[in-house]
Amino acid sequence: MSTPQFTIRPLDPFADAQLLHGWVTHPKAAYWMMQDASLPDVEREYMAISAAEHHDAFIGEHEGRPVFLMERYDPAHVELVGLFDAQPGDVGMHFLVAPTDTPVHGFTRAVITAVMRTLFDDPATRRVIVEPDVRNTAVHRLNEAVGFEIVEKIAKPEKDAYLSVCTRESFDAAVGAAL
User: Fold this and answer.
1) Are 98 and 79 in contact (CB under 8 A)?
2) How far apart are the C-alpha atoms of 179 and 161, rounded to whole Å?
3) C or N: which end of the chain has fewer Cβ atoms within 10 Å?
4) Of 173, 44, 62, whose CA–CA distance to 115 is shortest?
């Protein structure tokens, strides 16, 4: 999978574990909820995702350098079971941009746009579903910028979340179909 600016490859739970450990335990990744994870914890988590039938993980690269983590899941089977009536064509998504000491204005928005474009490259994808923590105001702004609408507040075991949905049409309207 690729976009004009980013290359997205399947995550290798062994080869990428050290990299991911640094990302998910970084203070800026507090909403990822792995702050206290050990390296073996991260390996186990991503081995389980790699083995799962309804969950995938990917590394996004920019100019050959890993810069983000993307997860794709089927909300009928993972993450939102019992909390959401999934429809055919629904795809769940998580993303995490690598921490950096030299932030680039607009980079995170470019990442979420690339993630969404990658998901919508599959013609079977009708809607992208996310469930960010209600306190994560930065991601709510990003989600809105690419066409997500909050459907409802839901109580998950680990957090209160805003269940949000983005259709292909709302994504295209938000970012421009030709981009």
Assistant:
1) no
2) 30
3) C
4) 62
Q: Whole-prediction pTM value?
A: 0.91
Q: How far is residue 11's CA from residue 35's CA, in Å, rounded to a whole number?
A: 20
Residue with token string 């450990």: 21
Q: Which two tokens stand for residue 163?
A: 């269940």
Residues in Cβ contact with 72 at an 8 Å cutoff, skipping those fewer than 6 apart: 55, 56, 57, 58, 91, 92, 93, 119
Q: What is the pLDDT of residues 77-120, one digit of tens each?
A: 988 888 888 999 999 999 999 998 888 888 999 999 999 999 99
Mean pLDDT value across residues 61-69? 94
Q: Where are the beta strands (DSSP E) in 17-126?
A: 55-62, 65-73, 90-97
C-alpha separations of 54 from 49, 92, 102, 103, 107 in Å: 8, 10, 35, 33, 29
Task: Please tell me the distance from the alpha carbon of residue 165 to that of residue 162, in angstroms, as a whole number.
Answer: 10
pLDDT digits (tens, 9 = 90+) for 161-178: 999 999 999 999 999 854
Residue 2 has pLDDT above 70, yes or no: no
- How large a percentage of the chain has pLDDT more than 70? 96
Residue 91: phi and psi, rounded to 5, are: -130, 125
What is each CA distance from 104 to 19, 40, 58, 62, 110, in whole angstroms?
20, 31, 22, 13, 10
Residue 48 carries which DSSP code?
H
